[in-house]
From TrEMBL:
Domain Transketolase-like pyrimidine-binding: 20-185
One Pfam short name: Transket_pyr
Range of residues in the leader sequence: none
Name listed for the protein in its UniProt record: Transketolase
Coiled-coil residues: none
Domain of life: Bacteria
Organism placement in taxonomy: Bacteria, Bacillati, Actinomycetota, Actinomycetes, Pseudonocardiales
InterPro entries attached to this UniProt entry: PDH/Transketolase (IPR051157), THDP-binding (IPR029061), Transketo_C/PFOR_II (IPR009014), Transketolase-like_Pyr-bd (IPR005475)
Length: 313
């Protein structure tokens, strides 16, 4: 292969990667892993069942679709885990986390077995479907249960890295996918400093990074990126803050979900915190687009810039 051929191949791969959605990266990664790891099993409740047709053709005994029975999906996953399998349960966030929450608490948590729960839809990726397909409170809800790792990737390549590690483990993992994504992937280990500044620290979670970078392009702040929010990188935040204790937390779900984690990390450091995210005060009943919902919640670039600069004075 010539240097020109190699360069062309790298370009083609980069373009292919940019065209793949987080959902597609998830399906591809799990399907490939099932060929080498006989523990991995997939449980769906109609949503995305057709995406696993290839995996079902090769491993029919380990790909189960229970129909529109989300509680049963988690119960089946719990039973699989008790037999030694590594179940992956998948649906829209409200159907995966909110509707079967009791089964997550009991069939997985109380039985102390592991599973990988992978959601799509995020807080309001598909507002055309209405409130039934929106789940801004999913991370806060999972956060009430002990022993969960929570990933909020901002790029499809991060999905592959996080999912590969999750599939090889035995613990309880929630992987929150979105149609919103950053222009490039970043490290998924702890908090990554994407930009450094002197007036404060902005923590951008998952798909919020590009908007935060645009909103703070003229603001002298450090921007930390987080693709994993549980466990929370207390040491990483503390190191970035130093003696400059102005912290802005930008999450793509319910505002203030990780505020208690910031408080714990900075328990002995006087600090100010601005928590930005999906509003708690009242429900947005309009449909519209995801970008229009961003504006309502102040999560668009202009809204973020206004909130951050006003907070920093």
């Amino acid at each position: 292969m010539t240097a020109a051929d190699f360069a062309g191949t790298k370009t083609a791969l980069a373009l292919a990667s940019s065209d793949v959605t987080m959902r597609e990266a998830f399906v591809e990664t799990v399907t490939a892993a099932m060929d080498t790891d006989p523990r991995i099993a997939v449980v769906t409740a109609d949503i995305s069942a057709g995406n696993f047709a290839e995996a079902r053709s090769r491993h029919p005994e380990r790909v189960v679709n229970v129909g529109i029975r989300e509680q049963a999906m988690i119960g089946v996953a719990g039973g699989m885990a008790l037999t030694g399998l590594r179940p992956v349960a998948h649906s829209y966030a409200p159907f995966l986390i909110e509707r079967p929450f009791e089964q997550i608490k009991l069939d997985l948590g109380h039985q102390d077995v592991g599973a990988v729960l992978v959601s799509i839809g995020a807080s309001y990726d598909d507002p055309v479907w209405g409130r039934t397909h929106q789940a801004p409170g999913d991370v806060a809800l999972i956060d009430t249960l002990p022993g969960w790792t929570i990933h909020v990737p901002g790029h499809q390549d991060e999905v592959r890295a996080l999912l590969s590690t999750a599939l090889a483990g035995d613990d309880r993992v929630y992987l929150r996918l979105s149609t919103r994504r950053n222009s490039r992937a970043h490290s998924v280990e702890g908090f990554t400093a994407v930009r450094t500044g002197s007036k404060g620290v902005v923590v951008a979670v998952g798909p919020m990074l590009d908007s935060v970078l645009a909103a703070t392009s003229t603001v002298d702040v450090t921007v930390l990126y987080a693709a994993t929010v549980r466990p929370f990188d207390h040491a990483g935040l503390r190191a970035a803050v130093g003696s400059n204790a102005n912290v802005v937390l930008v999450e793509p779900y319910l505002r203030g979900t990780s505020a208690h984690k910031v408080a714990t990390a900075l328990a002995d450091v006087p600090h100010r915190l601005l928590a930005l995210g999906v509003g708690r005060e009242e429900e947005v009943r309009a449909y519209g687009t995801a970008e229009q919902h961003d504006v309502v919640h102040g999560l668009d670039t202009a809204g973020l810039h206004h909130s951050i600069t006003h907070f920093l004075g």
